[in-house]
Amino acid sequence: MDTRTTNRLITPTSIMWKTVAEDCNLACDYCYYSTCGGKPQNEIRRIDDKLLERVVRQMMHHCEGQVSFAWQGGEPLLAGLAFFQRVVQLQALYALPNTTISNAVQTNGTLIDEHWAAFFRRYSMLIGVSVDGPEEIHNKRRRTGSGKGSYRRVMAGIDALKQAGVDFNILTVIHEDNVGQAAILMDWLADNQFQHVQFIPCMHFSAQDVDAKGQYRISPQQYGQFLCTAFDRWYNDGQPAISVRLFDNWLQKLMGSEPELCVHQQECPSVLVLEQNGDAYPCDFFIDERFRLGNANEDTLAQLLEEQRWSMFRSLQLRKSSSCETCKYLHYCGGGCPRNRTDLLKGNDRAHVDYFCESYRMLYAYGEERMRKLAHEWMAQQGIELPGRNERCICGSGRKTKKCCTAR
Ligand code: SF4
Ligand code: SF4
């Protein structure tokens, strides 16, 4: 069936909502979204209460037992504690029986104090805090509007989270100043007892200008070397002690689960991205009129989720490059992110791979043997055997060869 011509509904269980538009109290020099230079207006542009209630109510009726909200910015905590108290109040009001509700907040960490931490703990919110590594690295790029480094304020916020027992993870952007410092970064994570980290290679582009070529501050080779060194530390003689999302996703894939990282899924996931004003998009890298699904003030959730409105976006990742189609790592990699494929929007579909393709290939070639060994051991502990090279797939991914996707 050609889904582009039907009115089938996408059924997302996730909304990512830009809570305060572009307002942010930091002016990180690589930010692809905020343009306020770390100096938000006095009146923060938080989500209007009527819109909040309308979307939460519809989402609760639309979801089937599980729903997650990701609150992003700008800096979402600028919305204030009262805003988030209203969020959980509305979620409780409209949730159908037996609904699991998750809330995640992505923050720069500078505003977290004991009141925020107690609130996050009470409602079991998962907090992502952006830190780029040790103080001298972090402060080069993550500065206030007046140019001061933000490291100490961020670490004070993290201490408040630790004190309150809040679940949090660290997001680290990899750029010119830390791409050659993988071992130092991994040591810093361990020294600070950070258990979960996600690395994000720095891409300097505007989400609102999807035709502009991405500008990348690190080369694919630099990022590939970074991943290989970080992998050595992560592997830790077969006893990983820190969760690195990319490596964990790879291991999960070998053990039969789909990766959580959208970049390495076979198709972009169905996450509804809302701007603070209700404009809806399928991804926050594509904030452009051509990809706009509608506006949550005027359109119902069901209308925003009509499959045909998503078709242009969906088609991007389905148009894999010819290199991906024959790549022995496609089952790990998924083909990467369409935003990193130069000229994809100009219709030059097949010629370009993800800018970081070589980084992924370096990592997979370097770590595959050890990763497969780890997967074998972990599955054996659970009483499941990983198939040999010529045996049938057990992961249920339905690949054409019917051989296990991990057995090439
Ligand atoms: S376009 Fe890229 S960032 Fe957006 S959902 Fe797809 S893989 Fe993820
Ligand atoms: S490693 Fe490169 S060629 Fe292979 S699937 Fe990923 S992006 Fe495509």
What is the element layout, followed by pairings?
Blueprint lengths: L13 E5 L30 H14 L3 E7 L8 H14 L5 E8 L6 H9 L3 E5 L4 H7 L9 H14 L3 E7 L7 H10 L4 E6 L1 E2 L10 E2 L3 H16 L7 E2 H10 L16 E4 L4 E3 L12 E2 L5 H4 L2 H12 L3 H4 L4 H4 L23 H25 L27
Parallel strand pairs: 1-2, 1-10, 2-3, 3-4, 4-5, 5-6, 6-9
Antiparallel strand pairs: 7-8, 10-11, 11-12
Helix pairs in contact: 1-2, 3-5, 6-7, 7-13, 8-13
The structure holds iron/sulfur cluster (2 copies).
One iron/sulfur cluster binds next to helix 11, helix 12 and helix 13.
Concise synopsis of the structure shown:
The chain is α/β, with parallel strands linked by helices and 408 residues long. It has 13 helices and twelve strands.
Count of extended strands: 12
Distance between the termini: 31 Å
Decide which structural class fits the backbone.
Answer: alpha/beta
Q: Strands of the biggest beta sheet: in what spatial order? A: 9-6-5-4-3-2-1-10-11-12
- Work out the oligomeric state of the chains in this entry: single chain
| Mean pLDDT score | 86
What is the percent of helical residues?
A: 25-40%
Bound molecules: iron/sulfur cluster
Hey, roughly how much beta strand do the residues contain? 5-15%
The shape is globular
Order of helices and strands: EHEHEHEHHEHEEEHEHEEEHHHHH
The helix count comes to: 13
Low-confidence stretches: 1-7, 389-408
Q: Report the major sheet.
A: 10 strands, mixed
User: What is the radius of gyration?
Assistant: 21 Å
